[in-house]
Amino acid sequence: MDFLLTNDDGINSLGISYLKKYLANIGKVTIVAPDRERSATSHALSLNHPIRVKKISKDTYITDGTPADCVNIALSEIFKTPPDFVISGINPNPNLGDDITYSGTVAAAMEGTLFSIPSIAVSTSNGNKSQYESAAKVVLETISFVKEVGLSKDTLLNINVPNHPKGIVITKLARESTRGKIIKRVDPRGNKYLWIGNKTPIFKDTPDTDIKAFFDHLVSITPLSLDLTNHHFISILRDYHWNLNW
């Protein structure tokens, strides 16, 4: 099998090296990753400036673009034929609940899905060696599942591996967030500034969600869809009398 491996933490991330080691046992791995950390860039594409791509070793490239740029460039320019999978990670922090909307890790997998390639995003809770190894093993098992069963159109898989996992559950996306609070500080010159920092996660004990699974020390696998349409609300909008004079 051929794999495209990327991340949002940059080429020097330990997570991407662990994942490469495990994927290399079952196929050819091509890495196209940012040259530095690009966390929380979501699905941004670089449209207003050129993107530089550099080959640094065999089948390994870096770009000064976003994670989505990396996947787009790899699939459009580097691969002659599409890879079998796009794998994004291993992220050293979880991507759960509403926070996936910010995640460069998840966005890279979304970009792969837009190219109709089975795509997986994988994250851990603090990026230690045992978690990276556990996450890589879950990815290998997930690849086996997709090869056997397939993956629905416009669907990607978001995996989160907690510390000391006790099992695997299939979850839905929580409508809760673990993102940081706004911290107000003053610089040495007396100027006020804001910093989006960490805080105690917002967490409700909502059944079957990725956040609950994570706090229960269970590996969470959440199928995500590219279709953001609220199909139920379409009929409500259509039934409204739109009083517009053109």
How large, in whole angstroms, is the Cα Rg? 19 Å
Q: Helix tally?
A: 6
Any low-confidence stretches, pLDDT <50, length ≥5?
none
Which CATH architecture?
3-Layer(aba) Sandwich
Q: Mean pLDDT, as a whole number?
A: 91
Portion of residues within helices: 25-40%
CATH superfamily: Survival protein SurE-like phosphatase/nucleotidase
Indicate the proportion of strand residues: 15-25%
Largest sheet: 9 strands, mixed
Oligomer classification: single chain
What form results from the Cα inertia axes? Answer: globular
- The helix-strand sequence is EHEEEHEHEHEEEEHEH
- Text of the CATH class: Alpha Beta
Per the CATH scheme, the topology name is Stationary-phase Survival Protein Sure Homolog, Chain: A
Distance between the termini: 56 Å
DSSP E strands, number: 11
Strand order of the largest sheet: 3-4-2-1-5-6-7-11-8
Explain the overall architecture.
The protein has about 250 residues and is an alpha/beta fold. It has one domain: Stationary-phase Survival Protein Sure Homolog, Chain: A (3-Layer(aba) Sandwich). The protein is built from six helices and eleven strands. The strands form two sheets. Strands 3-4-2-1-5-6-7-11-8 form a nine-stranded mixed β-sheet. The protein has a two-stranded antiparallel sheet with strand order 9-10. The longest helix is centred in the middle third of the chain and has 21 residues, at about 130-150. The model has no long low-confidence stretch (mean pLDDT about 90).
